[in-house]
Design brief:
The protein is an alpha+beta fold. The protein has one domain. The strands form three sheets. It has a four-stranded antiparallel sheet with strand order 2-1-3-6. A hairpin with a 6-residue loop joins strand 1 and strand 2. The longest helix has 52 residues.
């Protein structure tokens, strides 16, 4: 008796595997990696914004908020775009507010008493991260970056790092 050869069938199975792997599995894998990196970065920026706001409410007011920006640039959480945040790829806005006694609304804080003084203690602070685009995985594929919305955190001032009795403030 003569045996039939299965050479043609094994070649067909290999070709089907290549088509499925190249057309379904690989794109699905890249999509999962992209989504995971995007969510990781999103969560990191949200936490980073909150950390900057916590720093601002416990340290003294400096006109322009440069002490908060410096702190935030040196305390960027680990993420795929960590270097972009440290180098200034996203804008950090620091806004201090005071409560209007008559209406109760928040207005921009102004103080002529100088930076880090007990005379200049605002009522609230808002930290905003603007102009950020997620590029980590997209650049390697030659795709345009994903523009993310602005991240913002507002908190009431706790002590602004000032001790009224001693007359000192923590920069």
């Amino acid at each position: 008796m003569r045996r039939r050869s299965r050479i043609g069938q094994t070649g067909q199975a290999a070709l089907e595997y290549i088509i499925v792997a190249g057309g379904v599995v690989l794109p699905l894998t890249f999509m999962i990696i992209f989504t995971a990196q995007l969510l990781w970065t999103w969560h990191s920026v949200v936490e980073w914004t909150r950390d900057g706001a916590r720093y601002a409410v416990t340290h003294c007011f400096q006109n322009g908020g440069e002490n908060v920006r410096t702190y935030m640039r040196t305390h960027v959480p680990v993420s795929p775009d960590q270097l972009e945040f440290q180098a200034g790829g996203a804008t950090i806005e620091v806004n201090y507010f005071q409560r209007d006694v008559d209406t109760g609304t928040l207005t921009e804080f102004n103080c002529s008493g100088g930076d880090c003084s007990t005379e200049c203690v605002p009522d609230a602070v808002t930290i905003r991260i603007t102009g950020y685009e997620f590029r980590a995985f997209m650049a390697s594929l030659g795709l345009p970056p994903v523009a993310l919305p602005n991240f913002q955190t507002s908190l009431p001032i706790e002590s602004s790092g000032c001790d009224a009795e001693l007359g000192t403030c923590t920069p």
